[in-house]
Amino acid sequence: MEKQQIKKRIEKLKKEISRHRYLYHVYDKQEISDAASDSLKNELFKLEMEHPEFITPDSPTQRVGGKPLDKFKKVRHSAPMMSLFDAFSREDMRDWEKRMERIMPGQRFDYFCELKLDGLAAALVYEKGKFSLGATRGDGAIGEDVTQNLRTVEAIPLALRRPEESELVKIGLPKPARNKFYAALDKGTIEARGEAIMTKKVFNELNRKYKKEGKPPLANPRNAAAGSIRQLDSKLTAARKLDCYVYSLITDLGLERHEQELELAAVLGFKVLKYNKYCKNLEEVLAFHGEWEKNREKLPFHCDGVAVKINQLSLWPRLGTVGKGPRYIMAYKFSAEQAVTKIKDVVWQVGRTGVLTPTAALEPVAVGGVTISRATLHNMDEIERLGLKINDTVIIERAGDVIPKVIKVLPKLREGGEKNIKPPADCPICGGKVVKAPGEVAYRCVNKNCYAVNLRRLTHWASRKAADIPGLGPKIIEQLAREGLARDISDFYKLTAGDLKPLERFADKSADNLAKAIAAKKEIDLARFIYGLGIRHAGEETALLLAKQFSIFNFQFSNKFKISITEIIKHYQELKVEELERVEDVGPIVARSIYDWFHNKYNLALLDRLEKNGVTIKPLEWRGKPQILAGKTFVLTGTLESLTRDEAKDKIRKLGGDISSSVSKKIDFVVAGAEPGSKHDKARKLGVEIINEQEFLKML
Ligand code: IVH
Question: CB burial class (10 A; 0-12, 13-18, 19+) of residue 49?
């Protein structure tokens, strides 16, 4: 290619890449795949490497890089970057409107509502349409030059888009304003201001990564955004994947309404929030606020209120500013995300690597619309830093999407019943030894299998043949275990929708659904209950036989509808190994295993917790029903057409029959479906009666 051709190609590529950036960030439209877009960037990068004379600062390849700075240069803002006055109630908002009415009697106010993002304010200056300066707020008059860092943020255009005149007409710019605009874009300066933020998704991803790498986590998305912008090495900023939304144009372009400013910002290539809304009166403003106060969790970023602005720009200078901020904008905050509550207990969860992490069990408390019953405590050092004791009154904070944290102890409210918090001597999950390696903060369980074995226990309990909790599958269980929400099976019955909502993969609805599903399964069939405990050698069949034994032994002549866990404990505490061996199909090994399980203090404590958390037991369903299959034992083989194997087993059991997995002379019937296996042959050899599906159904 000739030099001129290469230059042209570079220009074309830059334009096309910018166009896709614009469509993607401003309109959420993706015309080409990420891979295609990367390949355009690659081609541009290669051409520029071969011809560095054609590299311009607004090239998309110039977003990353730059030498680390020693410190930031100070810059004076073209106009002060002020703060906002806060309102916390409808009354505050009505008072605000009244104050403005007093200044401008008879004036009607139109409003424009914007979600108030919680990040770091940024001034973005464009000379002749090219990004020339990015600055922080600083003290309002003088900020820090963070241009290099802001250049790495894809949401910020490096060059402004040049809109067609028709686009300006559509926004409602009259001819003189259009001319003024093009002059500022082509020859002058345009300044926009906005908020650089970190989305919840990026925040969570980074924190997961940091956790894996053993680095300290970022405190919250706001601090993370602010910290990222103020990095001296712009490569670090780039790695933080920030986002940026513009909320005002500072340059006077002769517009009439604030709403138009934002429309203009969007056609220039800035990201503008799509949730913003024009409101014709204060009532609509209050409704907008109410709506988002309720739904703020669903937003992809942290938002702390609504910035309510007078829409008519001509009124801004007339209303003027007082002290720290303008009279024509009000920050109507959402209700606090902090609350005061008591620490009931500290529970220790065991992570994949055996590390024990403390979690505070709280007196349930409403924070920003959801009920919270636990908070993370990180480690023993954090407990010491806070000076925390059990029964302390504390301030907890729910920062956006993250699990609530204890931020402060209120020692003046102590009543004398506080207890020191000590790391456990034995692992609370497996009873294994707990050690603290010298120089490490963490305490660990030395049993390498502790976490995995526990996960299997939890999954087994929730499975279809045991407690049968829909929606509580292995993935969710692993997530709950990781978050310390499911240390053992009793914890399932403590989960509230409020505990689940902040977790990844959960929305309001799915959190509510799971909490409801668990609550609906608090009453468990006795056989399922025994099976769910996961006692060694006590499979489905044994559990059923044990359940029968329990029922006959305890109340064969009574009409009980509910069994308490206390009764179960009592029964097995009193039962000798020999007595257990007398249960059909229970040999010495099985009997010993059951006996040991019910004589282990951890298991008994677990049963206690299950009872405390509201789990009750239903006696066997066969009681009171015709027992036409009583005393008969079935073996199932092959595939049945009209019902699944589990359904068939269920039917047999409900009618008093038993099921065995192997054929012997003691078996009464072998039910043979399609393609029966070796059991069929064995039955024939032993002379056991074989029936087909039709005969079986008839029998039922
Ligand atoms: S208007 C005079 N609009 O909130 C200042 N600010 O508490 C004009 N903020 O420093 C600001 N979202 O960084 C405005 N939609 C929004 C905003 C917003 C977030 C930040 C801004 C400001 C701070 C004031």
Answer: exposed
